[in-house]
């Protein structure tokens, strides 16, 4: 694991944003795996600023997002589809036809999982996958469990995740289920970039890097991937 520690989330936004922009400049038709949540926002801001300044174009990229809430209209402001357009896609020149999401409203999660896996494979796989980490060590919505998961699937969210994310739901109750890429799909990405900021992530970060590899802390599987870059601020790195 290539661990890089920065003072704060703004510095990480620049460093991680540079990594993505440089990658896109080198491989304009690349496939990016993208994440939602508060953590990647400074990175997306940097990417949008670089586009606004004419330093990079995203017009030929393809994106696959990690997860999506179930039982929430795609257009609702809290869907991850809306999040991505608000925080990144509306600010860059990505082709909306080339952005991909799991369908959280599918009535057939298994078929939806197969569709997503095929769509990713048809593009040659994910070149760089961006990840955050949950306070409980989840990546995407792969919650602590007895076994590592495979391809995408429907999951019941844990109380830790509901507590962390319900602050964003002011008009309706937070969904209790999500469609998420599984650990197996995530581990197929050629390169993985994980960002963790803030003291609430310190325990999970320590387990991910120094603990045993266990599905009880899903991010620990990244120890077994051979190209992982981890961006931490000082608070998230405090227990290393
Ligand atoms: P956050 O979520 O960026 O909002 O902290 C990260 C995650 O749960 O993966």
- What is the name of the CATH architecture? 3-Layer(aba) Sandwich
Helix content: 25-40%
Number of domains: 1
Which regions have little confidence, pLDDT < 50, spanning 5+ residues? none
The shape is: globular
Secondary-structure-based class equals alpha/beta
| CATH topology category name | Rossmann fold
Number of helices: 7
- Rg, rounded, reads 17 Å
Strand numbers in spatial order across the main sheet: 1-10-9-6-2-3-5
What is the percentage of strand-forming residues? Answer: 15-25%
Mind summarizing the main beta sheet?
A: 7 strands, parallel
Total beta strand runs: 10
List the ions, cofactors and other small molecules found in this model: 2-phosphoglycolic acid
Regarding CATH, which class? Alpha Beta
* N/C terminus separation: 13 Å
Q: Strand-and-helix sequence, N→C?
A: EHEHEEHEHEEHEHEHE
Mean pLDDT: 97
